[in-house]
Specification:
It is a single chain. This protein is mainly alpha-helical and 545 residues long. The chain has three domains: 233 residues, no CATH class; 212 residues, no CATH class; 86 residues, no CATH class. The longest helix is centred in the N-terminal third of the chain and has 63 residues. The protein is globular, with a radius of gyration of 24 Å. It is found in: Cell membrane. It is a multi-pass membrane protein.
Length: 545
């Protein structure tokens, strides 16, 4: 297969990752805009009603949206790769039936069981919020099926656009209803239910958009069906294959939330066993959950986008036995992840204190306590990116159970390390942070070994890991130095932090080219890639190896 063909496939994968990254950031911003005013309006009491609905919603959401969209994406991409558009569409139709059944079940449980669930949670006022979120449980699985079908064709725009519309509608409907109920009746249960209905409104809006996209693509699908190769596949065989792929991925997706639940139980008890009071233990644990986790989660927008885009690209190459294309996609995927995750890790370590004080100006003591915890957790950003990237590769080649087993091993090691380190008073909550990093690191190594054994892909260690790390260290030094300088001149943490971050971005982009991280094919994939390549060639900044 030609080099041009591989470049086209690589460009498609990178473009898909870029689309999902941009829309993911927009969705994150909308999400933050939703929670901050809502907290201010309805307070802790109102949020407790809102909080009754979300564990149930999250549980069904994991079942519907964790494994099945990946399975749909993989199976569709495999069939599209060999020109079997008829069975690719059949996969989508079978998945819709499964998703509809999950949605109906979730809706019935949440809507008709609202009073029982709320009473059992010792918060009867949460019943209205449960009913308000029930429509989202009906529509979200169907939305996930549409997204999986689009991703399988390496069309990421429908997924990205629907995510933005979903969050936008969630903000306007949720905050609008919460404000209306709060000012018309001052009833916190109604206000919380109004806010919760935002998720339903968002999901319905996303479904409408995806239906429009699907209908608009009818003619193109008809043309594909006419030229499609075809082999008989029964509904039963497709159903079995979907579940075979989806179940391990769903279990794997449930492991990390489960880890957090057990972590809370374990860390609180270990802290109290070493002399911390219950109140102090809650405060220390809050450093991770309240202060650090949102910051650590932000870079994952990019790596999740890479992972989602990688599955259909890997599946497509694998089913065609295009080993050159497979190796190229793996190398491009991991390198893209490293070029994104290394600067995020170094930046958070270098500017941990300024960033925390910028985001939480009203809580200087807690922000100061959270600095070392954030720095330790930041070490896990690269490991988590490697873990996710190679999980996608293993899912793409039809080995979805391996990442689950590897993650389980990592989590067991995490609990052992956490138990030991949290019990040492000088480590306290930082021991839990170190345990998280260890879990991600061990799982990343195991995933890499499995990927290498099954695909035979050899990574260029210097280009993939060492050069992005060097560029990031240069950036980190510039960020720290510029922060200190601007802070001394202006005395403003906010201004100094923002200036340091802008300088860091500029320095990192320059350092990536100076260290020759990128080869010609990788530069071509970038927006305006040909112009950039001509410039880097002139300046001798292109990696020609």
């Amino acid at each position: 297969m030609s080099k041009v063909h591989h470049s086209e496939h690589g460009a498609k994968f990178v473009k898909g990752a870029a689309i999902l990254s941009i829309t993911g950031i927009i969705a994150k911003v909308f999400g933050a805009f939703f929670r901050i005013p809502l907290n201010n309006w309805i307070g802790a009491a109102g949020m407790s009603y809102y909080g009754v609905a979300y564990p149930i919603y999250s549980f069904f959401l994991i079942i519907a949206t964790a494994g099945l969209p990946v399975a749909i994406s993989k199976m569709v991409s495999e069939r599209v790769a060999i020109g079997d558009y008829i069975n690719a569409h059949r996969v989508y139709k079978v998945s819709l039936r499964i998703m509809f059944a999950i949605g109906v079940f979730g809706f019935i449980v949440c809507y008709f069981g609202a009073d029982i669930i709320a009473a059992h949670s010792k918060n009867p006022g949460g019943a209205a919020s449960l009913r308000a979120i029930a429509p989202a449980l009906l529509t979200a699985p169907i939305v996930a099926s549409f997204r999986g079908y689009s991703q399988g064709q390496q069309q990421m725009m429908p997924t990205g656009a629907s995510e933005v519309i979903e969050q936008l509608m969630r903000v306007f409907a949720g905050l609008g209803l919460a404000y209306m109920f709060l000012h018309s009746s001052a009833d916190l249960t109604k206000a919380a239910a109004g806010a919760t209905f935002g998720a339903s409104a968002g999901s319905i809006a996303a479904l409408i958009l995806l239906l429009i996209v699907y209908i608009a693509g009818s003619n193109a699908r008809r043309l594909h069906f006419q030229k499609s190769v075809h082999k008989d596949e029964s509904t039963k065989s497709i159903f079995k294959e979907l579940l075979k792929i989806a179940v391990p991925i769903t279990i794997g997706s449930a492991i990390l939330p489960f880890m957090m639940i057990v972590d809370l139980w374990l860390v609180m008890r270990r802290l109290q066993a070493t002399g911390w009071s219950h109140h102090q233990s809650k405060q220390l644990y809050g450093l991770i959950s309240g202060f650090c986790d949102p910051l650590i989660g932000f870079p994952q927008v990019f790596t999740i986008a890479v992972a989602v885009s990688l599955v259909p690209a890997i599946s497509s190459a694998f089913v065609r036995t295009d080993m050159v294309g497979l190796h190229k996609n793996i190398q491009t995927g991991i390198k893209t992840s490293m070029i994104i995750s290394f600067p995020c890790m170094v930046g958070l370590i270098a500017l941990a204190r300024p960033i925390l004080f910028l985001l939480y100006p009203g809580q200087p003591e807690d922000s100061a306590l959270a600095v070392p915890t954030l720095q330790v957790l930041s070490l896990g950003i690269v490991c988590l990116s490697i873990l996710r990237t190679f999980s996608s590769v293993l899912q793409g080649i039809g080995k979805p159970a391996i990442p689950v087993i590897n993650l389980s091993i990592g989590v067991i090691c995490k609990f052992i390390i956490t138990y030991i380190l949290v019990g040492i008073p000088s480590f306290n909550i930082n021991g839990a942070a170190a345990g998280n990093v260890a879990a991600y690191g061990i799982t990343a190594i195991l995933n890499y070994r499995a990927m290498h054994k099954l695909t035979g892909t050899n990574l260029d260690i210097i280009s993939t890991f060492v050069k992005p790390a060097i560029a990031s260290l240069i950036m980190g030094g510039a960020a720290h130095g510029s922060y200190v300088l601007v802070f001394r001149l202006l005395g403003s943490n906010s201004l100094a932090t923002l200036v340091a971050m802008m300088i860091a971005v500029f320095v990192y982009v320059v350092a990536v080219f100076v260290t020759k991280c990128l080869g010609p094919e990788e530069i071509i994939m970038m927006p305006k890639g040909e112009k950039i390549l001509r410039l880097t060639d002139k300046l001798h900044l292109t990696n020609k190896q």
